[in-house]
Amino acid sequence: MARLAFRLLFLFVLGCLLVLHAPAARAQSCVPPTDGLVAWWPLDGSTADLIDHNPASPVGDPSFSSGEVGGGLSLDGVDDAALIPASPLLDVGRSAGFTIALWIDPVAATSQPLVEWNNGSMAGAHFWIGVAPPLGGGDGSLYANLLDTEFNNHIIASAGGLVRPGLFHQVAATYDQASGSAALYLDGEPVASQFLGHFEALTSYDLWLGVRISRGQRFAGMMDEIEIFGRALGSQEIAAIYQAGGAGTCKCIDRDGDGFGSPGSAFCPNGEAEDCDDGDAGVHPGAAETCNGKDDDCSGAVDDGLGATTCGIGACQRTVPNCAGGVPQVCSPGSPGVEACNGIDDDCDGAVDDGLGTTTCGLGACRHTVENCVAGARQSCDPQQGATAEICDGIDNDCDGVVDDAARLDLAAALYTVGPGAHPQATKAPMAGLAVEVFDRSNRSCARQSCGGIGPNSYACIMRSCGPAAQGSTDEAGALSVHLLSGDYLALAATDAHLLVGAQAPTLQCGETEQKRLLEIVTTNGKAYSGTYTVRDGSELVVIEPEWIEWTGQQELYPFVFESLGSWDVTTTVNPPEGFEADYPSLSASMSSDLQAVQFTITDVGSDWVPTGVRHLLVHGARRETVLGRVGVKLSADLAGGKGLDRAGHPLKTHRRGSGPVEPDPRDPAPAEVLGFIEPSAADLSWTMKVAVHEAGPVSLAIVGAQGQVVRILAAGRMAEGEYAFGWDGLDESGKHAPQGRLDLRLQAGPAEQTVRLLDSPGGP
């Protein structure tokens, strides 16, 4: 009975011991590296230190096999060991404390070294198992002697029988310098705790694994996950390492040792960035990409970010990637072409659209030069760019190739239709679309040199033989403006009735505008005549009369038209040549409307075919003015032939070259002629004589008495072409009043002489 009771008691105690020392249930997930970890040798196929590059060097022939956490280091207990050279980081005795932790599976639980600092002849701090009493607890115990720098022993040991062969145990030794306490742990539980005092442990020697090198004592079995901390871990931290079991401390799987894991992990030296090729230390995140067909920087793209090279300029510029297919590329520029206007440097000389030249265009002020190409666009040269109205400044302002053609000739073409009777109705209509040519009429002009005169007889010759200085067509109002140089001009046009009408502008000046009229008169018998006109100031009166009358029978109509903007009284007197009679010596018209006409019927009773003299007395208020004119004559071919005359009314003669001069055409004007005169009035007590000089030369103008005696000389000397006005105050050459009786105005120009009656009645002016 007593024996049974003893057996039952033995089984109870054994069960309690098994319960107390049985491993606790472990969560198989890694524990993050604890703060203060200064060295870590996972021994997963290598002796590398994952913390500070303090690898362990194998001594003898240790081998790697499966451990508790991944791989482990197998030591044969004969000549196997591992050496880590002394390092400041491993001199943890100088810190505030330290911890030595590792997994072991010993072949036997007898006295064996685990981790020891040793200089080859003397041991420093060390951690063992199975140290025999009285120092240790015997087989299966944990033992640590934290020898200080003064070589004093500081021993802590557990009870024996704790470490069992053939099993992996997690063992740890800690020392906290501040508290002076040390502890020993087995499989996450404290198995010894003791106050050792305050000191610095001797840890400056080389660190040896599994051997006391100075005595040749060695460990036989497996070691795994050796960790050195620079502080004393707490019991919960030690327990967490044990609880992680085979997962161990979370580590970085870095097969190529470049600090980047695969997969990436926060526990890798370079963080969670994942190494895309853990077999090549040159490939990892942040590595410099090179042209080698690899994703060096683990960006997901091979040979990316290597850029491109651009070479050449203009159209020759080329850009190639610096790397293609893992092969570095060379940039070669293109070949130059021919430069064109397109905004591109086609010939690759560094200049865009160069060498394309310029274009110059325009005349006068418009002459300018433009680049043929600007901003890639072809340019046109506008010859009228900068054109302005011509002014008299020595510049061709309007860019027509002529300088100072700023004299303007305004032409108005009108057709006057005169009805029957002595006071016929008259109408006026513009001649629209009339083709007008303006000819130079100066002394050396074609009109003078080739066509002789300047009167109506030369119109056809001028139009046939000479080139115009300007030309154009009248608008719907019968108007046309042309710009000319200063000079003497004749405007000519052929009307619908095939009649040549003309207007003279002998004194056109730069910067001035002259207004002239081209007139055609049609009478009730259907005949058309070119008209001449006189404009008189006041409220303006235009006197229109035919330049010439073509006689086809014994009797012809002589029409005169008056166009007024005010109130005028007109008395027209005709003085037909000898052998002709007018039905009225004079006819009068009172201008109550803007268009009036008188018309004479002249009958041929003789044969003196010379111009008919005309005198118009114009009265406007107190103003009395006499306008002189003449109407030329031309015979129809039938009438001239029947009378044995030419069409000018001259007897037919035969002249040979050099036999003598040809008589002038009586329709052509004399070198000079009196245009009229203005009688004295209450406001102006002097006479005004108006003279036209058609050909420059000597001219004499005088007042003469009834016997031809000179009363007063008004002008004597050479005069240029133009119209002139001369005043006479009624006095003779001695300053006395002119004699009573008849007074005439006598004009002499070359061989021609004209006498105009001023006064018939007795008495002075």
Care to describe what's here?
It is a single chain. This protein has 765 residues and is mainly beta. Among the domains are: 30-247, Sandwich (Jelly Rolls), CATH 2.60.120.200; 252-307, no CATH class; 408-522, Sandwich (Immunoglobulin-like); 672-759, Immunoglobulin-like (Sandwich), CATH 2.60.40.4070. Strands 26, 27, 30, 33, 34, 35, 37, 39 and 41 form a 9-stranded mixed β-sheet that branches. Strands 1, 3, 4, 6, 11, 12, 13 and 17 form an 8-stranded antiparallel β-sheet that branches. Strands 36, 38, 40, 42, 43, 44, 45 and 48 form an 8-stranded mixed β-sheet that branches. The longest helix has 20 residues, at 2-21. The chain is rod-shaped and about 190 Å long. The model is unreliable at 1-25 and 654-667 (pLDDT under 50).
